[in-house]
Amino acid sequence: MNIVVIGGGAAGLMAAGTAAEGGAQVTLLETNEKVGRKLFITGKGRCNVCNNCDTQDVLQHVPVNPRFLYSALGCFAPADVMAFFEGRGVPLKTERGGRVFPVSDKSADIIDTLFTWIKHTGVTLVKATASAVEMADSRVTGVRAGGRVYPADRVIVATGGVSYPQTGSTGDGYRFARAAGHTIVTPNGSLVPLVTPGGCKELMGLSLRNVQVSVFEENKKIWSDFGEMLFTHFGLSGPLILSASAHMRHFGSKGYHIEIDLKPALDEKTLDKRLLADFDKHKNSDFINALDELLPRKLIPEVVRLSGIDPRAKVNGITKAQRADLLHTLKHFLVVVSGKRPVAEAIVTTGGVSVKEINPRTMESKKCTGLYFAGEVLDVDAYTGGYNLQIAWSTGRLAGLAAAQREDG
């Protein structure tokens, strides 16, 4: 049986090696000189392989079509991913939030292991850009690439989305899917920085730790979490903001803002006591000079502005009502969000091949016999923390197994 896999990223490598282990003759087509180019930059070059958690926890971190992944995760869970790499000589470690990395902190170790594995299983690696999936009577017959056609009984499309296009993710998989009759959910950036009107130039470079960020769609809170964030010249970035972006899917039709609780460890009553203590200490100072012990210096002018209190008002003259306004600002620091940075800057793509048209037990197309999809090309994405790579490993593994085992009726 001939299987052609298009794309040498995480999903494609896993699919190719798995299918070859299953006895198929596998050809892997990759545009770049080397496989795993996007893998190389994940986790800031350290490769956040997966998350050390159970499958239910993975699903809770997948905001888009989590149910589609039940079979894939059942086939290849986080524990299986860890066993796969450790069994091939890559020691792993678990860090904060369950994030799993190679002990070496080198993504190259993951890529080298996968490359060695696919060569050992007999995969034929070809540097070529696929231009079309050949079909006849709603059945795949081959893949056109580099001026020739590679015959195929099965084709696995693992081309990625449109994030980080310099790694080869240029949306070709969507074109192949459309040609086979598939619906494409409009691709957008997910896990991407956010843009604010006018940017945040006054706060640029300010990093906040241990804050709570809440996302509001119109005036309804749709998500909230604790962590770190960063103000930039264009708006907002950092781990919390990247995760928040995954919930902002309707720019253009709905308005979004976020609220930052600058002191989430203190309830309002406790924070008010803190304010009273600080005010008593600085009772003869100007208001703007009384917050140094409470806030980063760069943030003080903006908090003062949002509170509506005259920055030169004497602290001993601040009223209870004004203090309540300051308290509200500290617990609900509001930032309007006007959009996302370009999808090319996103860590992953949200949108892609509609999972309604894919068999979740095999990753095979319901439109075209012998056509499979795996990884980011599908309309499934997750938060940061190793969950998106888990999706790639699991869907790639399942597609490879199913393609190698499928018998035509």
Helix-strand blueprint:
Elements: E1 2-6, H1 10-21, E2 25-30, H2 37-41, E3 50-51, H3 55-60, H4 70-75, H5 78-86, E4 92-94, E5 99-102, H6 107-121, E6 124-127, E7 130-135, E8 140-145, E9 148-151, E10 154-157, H7 172-179, E11 184-190, E12 194-195, E13 207-217, E14 220-231, E15 235-237, H8 239-245, E16 256-261, H9 268-281, H10 300-307, H11 320-331, E17 333-337, E18 339-340, E19 348-353, E20 371-373, H12 387-405
Parallel strand pairs: 1-2, 1-10, 2-6, 10-20
Antiparallel strand pairs: 3-5, 4-5, 7-8, 8-9, 11-19, 12-15, 12-18, 13-14, 13-16, 14-15, 16-17
List keywords for this structure.
409 residues; alpha+beta; 7-stranded antiparallel beta sheet; 5-stranded parallel beta sheet
Summarize the structure.
This protein has helices at residues 10-21, 37-41, 55-60, 70-75, 78-86, 107-121, 172-179, 239-245, 268-281, 300-307, 320-331, 387-405; strands at 2-6, 25-30, 50-51, 92-94, 99-102, 124-127, 130-135, 140-145, 148-151, 154-157, 184-190, 194-195, 207-217, 220-231, 235-237, 256-261, 333-337, 339-340, 348-353, 371-373.
